[in-house]
């Protein structure tokens, strides 16, 4: 047989393209799954982190909103309280001003009333002074009146008597001042308010003395100088001349 004769050869069966494709597909599927898993895992992790970040931002935003809302509420409440305080202060100020105005009005009214009372009192005093000074002026002289009084010393005291033989206190003074042309009321109470009041330290001869209050005197006499007076004292003594310290008088008036 020649070398070139055809000798049949045994060949290994070849895998079909299908098997290769399956193997390649399986391998690729595994690798793809791994790759997909690997790819998904970071993406999932990133998404979770993103969600967490979003939640954190949202919580921060919510907290900020809550804080802002709380601050706004506090501010509104503070403003409301401030307005209430301001209103109360304004009302209190108005009340105080009203009270001050009322007090001022009352003070002015009291002042006007006091001024009117003062003027009325001054007018009354002036009227009384005018009445007293309008009494008839003395036509005689004090020395003659004192001489008359001395001539009556020793006469008896008789209640209601006005001379010439007996006297009571106001009857004697009425008769004495008649020597000066001065007409006096009959009673000691009325006589004690006639004339001009004088101090006991400034007595002059002829001044009328009285015991008790002016207008309510229970006894009268006449100052005759030298620290003495003459008067119809009582039924025991009659008309006498005594020193002032014998029975100090309460006051004195000057007539004529």
UniProtKB/TrEMBL annotation:
SUPFAM superfamilies: Cysteine proteinases
An annotated Gene Ontology molecular function: cysteine-type peptidase activity
Record-linked PROSITE patterns: NLPC_P60 (PS51935)
Residue span(s) of domain NlpC/P60: 139-256
KW Nucleotide-binding (keyword) present: no
Pfam families (alphabetical): NLPC_P60 (PF00877)
Gene3D superfamilies (alphabetical): endopeptidase domain like (from Nostoc punctiforme)
Keywords: Hydrolase, Protease, Thiol protease
Biased composition (Basic and acidic residues): 101-122
Disordered: annotated span: 40-137
Polar residues bias: start-end ranges: 66-85
An example Gene Ontology biological process: proteolysis
Alphabetized PANTHER family for the sequence: MUREIN DD-ENDOPEPTIDASE MEPH-RELATED (PTHR47053:SF1)
Family: Belongs to the peptidase C40 family.
Record's protein name: Glycoside hydrolase
Species name: Streptomyces nanshensis
Lineage, highest ranks first: Bacteria, Bacillati, Actinomycetota, Actinomycetes, Kitasatosporales
């Amino acid at each position: 047989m020649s070398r070139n004769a055809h000798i049949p050869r045994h060949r290994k069966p070849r895998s079909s393209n299908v098997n290769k494709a399956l193997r390649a597909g399986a391998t690729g599927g595994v690798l793809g799954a791994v790759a997909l898993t690997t790819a998904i895992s970071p993406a999932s992790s990133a998404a979770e982190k993103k969600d967490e970040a979003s939640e954190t931002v949202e919580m921060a935003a919510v907290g900020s909103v809550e804080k802002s809302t709380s601050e706004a509420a506090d501010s509104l409440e503070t403003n409301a309280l401030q307005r209430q305080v301001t209103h109360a202060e304004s009302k209190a100020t108005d009340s105080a001003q009203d009270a001050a105005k009322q007090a001022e009005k009352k003070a002015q009214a009291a002042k006007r009333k006091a001024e009117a009372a003062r003027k009325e009192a001054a007018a009354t005093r002036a009227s009384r002074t005018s009445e007293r000074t309008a009494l008839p002026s003395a036509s005689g002289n004090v020395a003659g009146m004192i001489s008359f009084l001395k001539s009556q010393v020793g006469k008896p005291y008789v209640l209601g008597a006005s001379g010439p033989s007996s006297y009571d206190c106001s009857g004697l003074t009425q008769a004495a001042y008649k020597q000066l042309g001065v007409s006096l009321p009959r009673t000691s109470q009325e006589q004690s308010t006639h004339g001009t009041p004088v101090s006991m330290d400034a007595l002059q001869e002829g001044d009328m003395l009285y015991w008790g209050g002016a207008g309510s005197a229970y006894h009268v006499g006449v100052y005759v100088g030298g620290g003495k007076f003459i008067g119809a004292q009582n039924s025991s003594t009659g008309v006498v001349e005594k020193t002032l310290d014998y029975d100090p008088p309460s006051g004195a008036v000057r007539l004529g």
